[in-house]
Amino acid sequence: MQHRIKVGLSEKSIDNAISELQAYKKNLPVWADEICKRLAFMGATKVSLGFSRAIYSGDKDVEVSVEPIQNGYSIKANGESVLFIEFGAGATYGYGHPEAKEYGMGPGTYPGKGHWDDPSGWWIPQEKGGGHTYGNPPAAVMFHTANELRDSIYEVAREVINSGRH
C-alpha cells in the first residue's frame, strides 16, 4: 500500500510531487469512508450468519443493520434473543464469553430471578419459540466479528486505495 512519489531537483518535478500529494490528501477522507463502509457491510454479513447459525432454543428474532454514525458506521443487532445468543444463557452453558463481565452479562444477570440456575432447565413459552432448554453457550458473534474485522482492515484499505475509487 506504499505510494511513492519521485521528485527530481527541478521546479516542475517539485510542483508535480506537490500536486500528487494534494490529490492523495484530498482522497484520504473518501477512502476512509469507503474502508469503514466496506468493513461494516462485511461485518453485518458475518453477524447475520453467526446469529442464524448459533445454538439457541428460542425464537431467533435477530435483525442486523448498518447505520451511518459520526466518523463511520455502526453494525447493530436488534431482537430479544440477541443478548442470550451473544453472551449465552443458563447455569449449564451460559459461561465463557470473553467480555461478559465487562458488560455485566453472564448467568443470573437477566433482570428478575428467572430459572437460569434450575438444574432441570426451563420451558420457553410457545410465543417465544417454545421448547425445553438448559440454556445455550455464548456464540460471541459480535465479539468474533469485531476481531475478524480488525484483522481485515489492512486488506480492505489496500483494496480501496489501489482500486482508484476516489
Describe this structure in words.
The chain is α+β, with helices and mostly antiparallel strands. Helices cover 46% and strands 12% of the residues. It contains 4 helices and 4 strands. It has a two-stranded antiparallel sheet. The chain has a two-stranded antiparallel ribbon with strand order 3-4. A hairpin with a 2-residue loop joins strand 1 and strand 2. The two termini are 15 Å apart. The model has no long low-confidence stretch (mean pLDDT 88).
Strand order of the largest sheet: 1-2
- Give the number of helices: 4
Q: What is the average of the pLDDT values?
A: 88
Low-confidence spans: none
How much helix, percentage-wise, in residues? Answer: 40-55%
Shape: rod-shaped
> By helix and strand content, what is the structural category?
alpha+beta
Q: Mind telling me the C-alpha Rg?
A: 23 Å
Offer a few descriptive terms.
166 residues, alpha+beta, two-stranded antiparallel ribbon, 4 strands, rod-shaped
How are the elements arranged and paired?
Layout: H1 11-53, E1 63-69, E2 72-78, H2 82-87, H3 90-93, E3 122-124, E4 131-133, H4 141-163
Antiparallel strand pairs: 1-2, 3-4
Helix pairs in contact: 1-4
Kindly summarize this structure in a few lines.
The chain has helices at 11-53, 82-87, 90-93, 141-163, and strands spanning 63-69, 72-78, 122-124, 131-133. With 166 residues, the protein is of the alpha+beta class.
